[in-house]
Amino acid sequence: MTKSVSIEQITKKFDSSVAVNNVSIEIGQGEFFTLLGSSGCGKTTLLRMVAGFLQQSSGHIRFDRKIIDTVPAHERNTGMVFQNYAIFPHLTVAENVAYGLKVRKQAKGDIDREVRKMLELVRLDHLAHRLPRELSGGQQQRVVLARALAIRPDVLLMDEPLSNLDTEMRLHLRSEIRAIQQQFGVTTIYVTHDQEEALLISDRVAVMSMGNVEQIARPGDIYLNPQTLFVASFIGDNNLIPVEIEALAADGTASARLPSGERTEARAATGQQLTQGTKATLSLRPQDIDLAPAGTGGLQGKLTELQFLGGTIKAFFDLGTGKPVTVSLQGRHGTQIPVIGETRSLIPLPGATTLYAGEVKA
Taking a C-beta distance cutoff of 8 angstroms, is the pair 257, 244 a contact? Predict the structure, then answer.
């Protein structure tokens, strides 16, 4: 039976280096939970501790309410899907899927039935007698997924399973993985550096940076309401504009001054504490900006570049901030495309501007 996972104040040190720093996460039974971050952020190290391949320096890991810190990896009943497939080259597709069941000394009839069921699930039943070298990368990864699920794991662990595949196969297989996970209802911890992948397939996402969890939330909240400057800069396209806080109002809004001298009002992101007279960062996504004739409100910018991307047009405006501000326009019939060199008013949608304490790193 699938289980919940509790990661309680987990820290992992390698000599003097801290790979995972006091991380606590509660993952519900049957949840598809993703650890998202760039290389070296600690996400795979955390996954390997849950699997039992690494021992944490401090903290506890529980499956349901049971502490499993000293339980060996092979006794945790986790299914593992690796980035490099870890498929047995000398075994057929069916033999690969049957491997874990044979190790558990299940009856041959039971093994044969489960293998057939798993291969039908991943749509490889017609390739049961082929060797891995006769399969595509996507097919090999489906074999590994079927092998991991065949043992009926309490928790399914997936470490960058699609990173070695081409774009088309990756797009197709990630939807398959999500559909299969929902059908099985197995608690899944998924590691990826691909933010689009994480937002698409996850129930919740933990964004990690330098061994720390920056934010845990549903995909929509991660994108629409990032709680830290790192998450705002890491998730999706964003304009991050340096400002100085000039005044704080009782209703929670702040008056911020841009390097150009222009002023705008915005609210602090959830959990952010702003102080008058300090540096801050204004967050404004490209699709949340309307263009209007110069001098009609908003922020004034000079168009310096246009990029035509089919259904989207990216317009880059110089606001005197040191970095162009991007505006995303729909490339639909009748769209009024601005002319390079002209000045326009950039008007944020209501509530779209957010302030974070501190300056964004270049």
Answer: yes
Residue 232 lies in a domain: no
- What pLDDT was estimated at residue 46? 98
Q: CA 45, CA 50: separation in Å to the nearest integer? A: 9
DSSP string, 27-80: E-TT-EEEEE--TTSSHHHHHHHHHTSS--SEEEEEETTEE-TTS-GGGS-EEE
More confidently predicted of 60 and 253:
60
Euclidean distance between CA atoms 139 and 145, whole angstroms: 10
Beta strands (DSSP E) in the chain are 5-14, 17-27, 32-36, 58-63, 66-67, 78-81, 155-159, 187-192, 204-209, 212-217, 239-248, 253-257, 263-268, 279-284, 289-293, 299-309, 312-318, 325-330, 343-348, 354-357
How many angstroms separate the Cα of 292 from the Cα of each of 158, 287, 298, 319, 343? 47, 14, 9, 15, 10
Mean pLDDT of 321-330: 92
Can you spell out the DSSP letters for 85-117? ----TTS-HHHHHHHHHHHTT--HHHHHHHHHH
| 263 and 200 in a common domain | no
Residue 360 — pLDDT band, cuts 50, 70, 90? confident
Q: Which residue has the higher pLDDT, 172 or 78?
A: 78
| Whole-prediction pTM | 0.92
The first and second tokens of residue 241, run together, are: 């504009």
Q: Please give the DSSP secondary-structure letter assigned to residue 186.
A: -
Domain of 334, in residue numbers: 237-357
pLDDT at 362 over 60: no
Question: 297 and 212, same structural domain?
Answer: no
Residue finishing a domain among 226, 245, 261? 226
Residue 278, both tokens = 């300090």
Number of domains in the chain: 2
Q: Is residue 362 part of a domain?
A: no
pLDDT score of 361: 67
CATH number at residue 308: 2.40.50.100
Q: Using one digit for the tens of pLDDT, what is the confidence trace for 223-236?
A: 999 999 999 999 99
